[in-house]
Predict the structure.
Amino acid sequence: MKRSIDHILTTHAGSLPRPDDLAHMMYDLMDGKPVDQAKLQARITEATAEVVKKQIDLGIDVIADGEMSKPNFQTYVTKRWTGFGNTGEMLVSFDDLADFPNVAREIWDMEGMKHRPMPVVVAPIKVGDPNAVLRDIADLKAAMGNRSPDDAFIPAAPPSLVTATPNRYYKTFEEYTEAVCEALRYEYKAIIDAGFNLQLDAPDLPMHGHCQIGLAPRDIKKYVPAAIEAMNHAIRGLPPDKIRLHVCWGNYPGPHHLDVELREIVEPLLKINASFIYVEAANPRHEHEWEVWNEVKLPDGKALIPGVIDSVTNHVEHPRLVAQRIERFAEIVGKENVIAGTDCGFGTYVGMSACDPQVAWLKLQALSEGARIASDRLY
């Protein structure tokens, strides 16, 4: 992926608002209802072209397909792999919401929560639809026209996010992890072989400090290094400069007062064999953590993608504020090592967003304008 050589590049976390009609098709897909696959694929292709054009028109440098083909960033794999059943049970709990039932109720009452299957592993995990990622690649290439695929990325789940799914088949966690790594590796390699950049979305890493995700033990000091080790195994041999690791503390409008501090997990995060580290840095709970990069040296060969746009509020950041945030990081790690992003996605789950879709596009416009202001000052 390109560096900020002559101006500050912009990007985002991957998911973008889906058209209402596509969202309803996704609801049917998640609910197990009959879906006209040809009609669904045609709409995904069309929606991908729409969101790519919007990103380009707004001046976003490193774009994505908006995850138009995925009901969400995590359990999409259950539609592409064999081995999954459905428990129908909620297997995630949030410590920060426990004492705030009214806030929790607003989140759980979002439409997307009514169409969110909870998978469980019941058989061998293997690639079941090898063409799914190839369709994503073809749609994004077609939408981009003559632009280089190095100007875009495709997000994918990391092994640790998948192995949070309850396992009722594999005898050991090691066997389970190995199977997941190999199945994911097919998707990772296909994305990079096509010339695109790969983004590993790993909210489970920091969230492990304040959430119970599946049945995994709650020892974050052991969990994060083990998760990074599994990722490195899955991406072995793939070029680090084509890979970015995105971590967040949960893209939901909760109090987040129990979030683990970035400084407590940053050391193992930096051991990922990826050249780009992508962290939240705009929301009120984590904006102060730019200080961490004064204390922890960014390793040679790595670049930082700080979130400078909050993804769970309808406040549109002023471009000058965006520029100030960018310049702060540039002063610490060097302007060539900074790419400006959003904290997280704007459509992480279909039907679950705290930011209005129209506002999301205004926020991306503010990101682009703020980066231009910062570039004028820095270059």
Observations:
- The chain has a mean pLDDT of 93.
- The longest helix spans residues 37-58.
- The chain has one domain: 9-378.
